[in-house]
Write a structure and sequence with these properties.
Elements lengths: L4 H19 L1 H7 L4 H10 L17 H14 L1 H17 L4 H8 L7 E14 L2 E11 L7 E9 L5 E10 L4 E3 L13 E11 L3 E3 H4 L19 H30 L1 E2 L5 E2 L4 H33 L6 H27 L11 H13 L6 H12 L10
Helix pairs in contact: 1-3, 1-4, 4-5, 4-8, 5-8, 8-9, 8-10, 8-11, 9-10, 10-11, 10-12
Keywords: Monooxygenase, Oxidoreductase
GO molecular function, one term: oxidoreductase activity, acting on paired donors, with incorporation or reduction of molecular oxygen, reduced flavin or flavoprotein as one donor, and incorporation of one atom of oxygen
Protein name: Flavin-dependent monooxygenase
Length: 393
């Protein structure tokens, strides 16, 4: 697919910012949040509008362009890439909500951002015209830079039975942010807790995950681009894998640069760049990174082609997206580990990209979307002809 001039301008703007993001890495770790200046600069490039509907000032860009920008940002700083990815993808989901909800978010300010926490740790009860929502949600990355939040919640009827799983769109005045983010990796993401005291959420501000599992949403009535017909889980799980692949890309670049300058005292002053075993590690790592990226993007392209032809995306492909997403994450982390182990003691120093990428990538690995066994079991079971719930993917 041809990249639009608008999307190319965003990518060019993002790449110009990479040295600055890298310089701010220590500041982000110290603050435990992406610096406000970085978010403002990303906003100015148009990054956060890549997946936003044109009706509200967005670009409705190719998702591969969005992922490419995320990968590049993460190659400079993992936390900035992670927050850019998860906050930047939310306009795609908002486009699936009823237009009333979209108007509430972007009607007065088209630069409004949303964070999220999808694990259904809160509770929603059916009420006239909507739901009563309450609870606590964890790991809402970038929430300090957002004025709305998307929360996952199980819906209970009056008998206490679960009748649905929905996403609830909640404005800033109806939730609290609790600062709990003291961690060893992705420190700069500010992935704090969200607390909601019981509050009423109109039905138009909710979205059934069962519906999105079928590639449907009321917002498609006004946002009819093929972009909004792709599977929710394909778009969102790729959003979690891409920053980690970006971290591997950045780690690879720093490792090669370090080895070109490194003299190995333990090997009679041998230059590391002349070590054949070091060359093998570089070759293997670069292949793993390239394979992770190529498979992830190829699957998205295949889904796009089917949507463009008006065809249903088969379950096998949707499960393959998950297969290659979790394995792409694994490949990226394996590459980082391989390079980190061979980089020498200087890679341990605070301020180096390599040690930070090592910590950040392993922190990202524990995200539920990166659970490899479950995703791989689902793919294998489907290949054997066992029934798999399509709503999950």
């Amino acid at each position: 697919m041809n990249r639009s001039p608008e999307a190319q301008a965003v990518l060019d703007g993002v790449r110009d910012l990479l040295p600055t993001f890298r310089e701010r890495s220590d500041e982000g770790e110290r603050l435990r949040v992406v610096p406000e200046a970085s978010i403002k600069e990303l906003e100015e490039t148009g990054f956060f509008r890549l997946l936003q509907p044109k009706r509200y000032g967005g670009l409705e860009a190719d998702p591969v362009d969005f992922y490419t920008a995320v990968r590049d940002i993460a190659s400079a700083d993992g936390s900035t890439g992670w927050v850019a990815s998860v906050v930047g993808v939310h306009p795609w989901q908002v486009a699936l909500f009823a237009d009333e909800a979209q108007q509430a978010v972007w009607g007065d300010d088209q630069s409004v951002r949303l964070s999220s926490s999808y694990a259904p740790t809160g509770r929603a009860v059916l009420a006239e015209g909507g739901f009563k929502l309450s609870g606590k949600w964890s790991f809402s990355s970038g929430c300090d830079h957002c004025s709305w939040v998307l929360l996952g919640g199980l819906v209970f009827n009056e008998e206490g039975q679960v009748v649905d799983f929905r996403t609830f769109m909640v404005p800033r005045e109806k939730y609290q942010i609790v600062d709990v983010w003291n961690v060893v990796g992705l420190r700069g993401t500010g992935s704090n807790d969200i607390v909601v005291e019981e509050t009423f959420i109109p039905e138009a501000f909710t979205l059934s995950m069962g519906e999105t599992g079928q590639c449907r949403g009321p917002g498609q009535a006004v946002n009819d681009s093929d972009l909004y017909k792709l599977p929710f889980h394909s778009i969102f799980t790729s959003t979690i894998a891409t920053p980690i692949i970006g971290m591997a890309k950045g780690a690879y670049a720093e490792h090669v640069e370090m080895q070109q300058k490194r003299v190995r005292a333990a090997y009679l002053g041998e230059k590391a760049s002349l070590d054949p075993f070091a060359a093998v590690r570089i070759a293997r790592s670069s292949s793993e990174i390239d394979a992770a990226w190529a498979l992830l993007m190829n699957n998205i392209r295949e889904e796009q082609d089917l949507v463009a032809r008006g065809e249903t995306i088969p379950l096998e492909l949707r499960l393959r997206v998950r297969r290659d997403q979790v394995l792409g994450t694994a490949r990226a982390i394996e590459a980082i580990d391989t390079l980190f182990e061979a980089s020498g003691g200087r890679a341990l120093a605070e301020g180096t990209y390599l040690q930070r990428a090592w910590r950040d990538a392993h922190a990202g690995r524990v995200h539920a979307a990166n659970d490899p066994e479950r995703a791989l079991q689902m793919y294998g079971a489907q290949q054997f002809g066992h029934k798999v719930d399509p709503g999950m993917y």
